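Minutes, project check-in
Item: structure for the 99-residue chain
Input as provided by the requester:
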Amino acid sequence: MTTLILSVHVIACVLLIMIVLLQTGKGAGMGASLGGGQSQALFGGTGPATLLSKVTTGIAIIFMLTSLTLAYRSSHSSQESIMPDAPAPIEQPAGAESK
């Protein structure tokens, strides 16, 4: 199950990077909203959400859900050793250093 979630997480991560890089910058809109230059509608001329921004939102939600799921599963996993036959190492006390 963790492998499936991890695979979806990696795919969502790569898609999110590619989709964000495909989008155009919106730096001019910020200056216009603060009083500089001509101001347009609240969301600009393209409307509140283009197809690319909707896809970005969907992939970001999938990325966040898989991140939370993987974090939850890793914190609640059993604490079994990956080397069950090996004995635990013996620790020396801090003051018992050999010279």
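Outcome recorded: Residues 11-20+51-71 form one domain.
No further action items on this chain.
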